[in-house]
Design brief:
It holds the Pfam family ADK. InterPro entries: Adenyl_kin_sub, Adenylat/UMP-CMP_kin, Adenylat_kinase_CS, P-loop_NTPase. The chain has 220 residues and is an alpha/beta fold. It has a single domain, classed as Rossmann fold (3-Layer(aba) Sandwich). The chain is built from 10 helices and 8 strands. It has a 5-stranded parallel β-sheet with strand order 2-3-1-4-8, sandwiched between helices. The radius of gyration is 17 Å and the shape is globular. The chain starts with a strand and ends with a helix.
Amino acid sequence: MIPGARLIILGRQGAGKGTQCVRLSRHFVVPHISTGDMLRAAVREGTPLGQAAKEVMDSGGLVGDETMVGIVSERLNSDDARTRGYILDGFPRTVGQAEALDLVTGERPLDAVIDLDVPRSLVLERLSARRVCRDCGTNYVASGNERQPWICEVCGGDVMYRADDTPDAINNRLDLYEQQTSPLINYYQATGRLTVVDGVASPDEVFARLTAAVEASRRK
């Protein structure tokens, strides 16, 4: 394994991108850049960006391209991302964002663009079971056997539904994915940069598939 990588992980929400990106980040020794986490942190902190994004996120919408490109560009210019690489999770989500990212990366092209493919019916089940700590943001998956009130094992805060995981918001996000994000598959496929990885397997098996896909892409 060669340390360092510049990766994009695509896929529906609930496909397991966050879990796998954390493992890939450790494996390749690069920062995991999650735009969703960045936005949720801004909402919790009440920053101007957070206030502007909250209403959009709560309804299941996507934050505008200009805002997202600015956030990501600034992060990619940080020392760790410039020297070691990065894993982008949740960005780009539109062809416009992808085109802007190509301009930003320029002399430091991507090693791989991976679509973690999980059927919509399965991600609906997964998203409906997601819970989050109100205080520290730790994520959980409900089994139905949890004691109530559900207390976070990390900080002792209350574990609850994410504000943007209502049934309507989940379906809105998945619909938006099909309408706006799916064309990214064609965009990256047309330039020979896309690899599709089946995300329906155990976490360890999916991780093995992802690392193999990255190494294969590097050999092209």
